[in-house]
Design brief:
It is built from five helices and 16 strands. It is an alpha/beta fold. Strands 8, 9, 10, 11, 12, 13, 14, 15 and 16 form a nine-stranded mixed sheet that branches. Strands 1-2-3-4-5-6-7 form a seven-stranded mixed sheet. The longest helix has 16 residues, at 61-76.
Length: 252
């Protein structure tokens, strides 16, 4: 592990069912005892999907997202990578990949034990990109799945959690990790992803024991946020809308 990665590991740590996990400012999760890197909701080829529907977006989301994952793999040198569902934006995304991006994915899957967890956008594993597929993956006391159910020990994605925080001078809206110590929901790492405010009713069944804690992603750190500073969004949540994920920037 690089010196920069070691510095990040010392900054903040979470526990799920007794397992120590490190949330990273890129939006990934590092499990040091298992040398496992967890990423969620990459939504590769979302831009090309929108373009096919007539909404022209910059065609760089896959490349930008892969750059973040590649940088994390270089920094942490994991033995295993778990991609926690919605790795691809739709069933045909694999076939829209440009040759260079397909080669980058194959390089990643061949360098680690890469697990594609089934998502609602990508129920079928990629056919020609390497790695192995799982509907649900269980390791020790932890269960990895895409859509959260509230099961104890669960790490999930799907909801793209975001926190809107009231500060002294303005409000900030940032992607975040959400946990109660027994289960955890990860932020979306994809470059074109929206988010659902953690105060939305959708989170209540995910944390049946209460005690939800929020850890927001800042520029170079993950920061605990007091629930008293959280405020709801006005209007409709933007889970289905695209935006450039400002967390998805490569680290050295």
């Amino acid at each position: 592990m690089s010196a920069a990665a070691q510095k990040q590991v010392r900054e903040i740590q979470l526990h799920v069912r007794g397992e120590m996990l490190t949330p990273l400012p890129e939006g990934a999760l590092w499990w040091p005892s298992e040398r496992t890197l967890i990423v969620s909701d990459l939504h590769l080829e979302k831009g090309s999907s929108y373009a096919a529907a007539g909404q022209m977006l910059p065609p760089y989301d896959t490349s930008a997202t892969l750059a973040v994952v590649e940088a994390l793999v270089r920094a942490y040198q994991p033995e295993r990578v778990i991609s926690l569902g919605d790795s691809f934006h739709d069933r045909d995304a694999e076939w829209r990949l440009v040759e260079q991006d397909a080669a980058r994915i194959k390089a990643l899957t061949s360098s680690t034990d890469w697990v594609w967890v089934e998502g609602n956008h990508d129920p079928d594993p990629p056919e020609d990109l390497g790695g192995r597929a799982a509907k649900v993956l269980r390791m020790n006391e932890i269960v990895f799945r895409h859509e959260p159910t509230g099961e104890s020990g669960e790490i999930a994605g799907h909801l793209h959690p975001c926190a809107k925080v009231l500060s002294r001078v303005r409000t900030l809206r940032r992607s975040c990790f959400v946990t109660d110590g027994q289960r955890l929901i990860m932020p979306a790492l994809g470059a074109f992803t929206g988010g659902l405010n953690v105060l939305h009713d959708a989170y209540e069944p995910c944390f049946p024991d209460g005690g939800m804690m929020v850890f927001a992603i800042a520029r170079d750190a993950v920061i605990p946020v007091s629930n008293k500073r959280l405020i709801p969004d006005r209007g409709r949540p933007d889970l289905g809308r695209w935006r450039m994920n400002t967390n998805a920037s490569p680290k050295g």
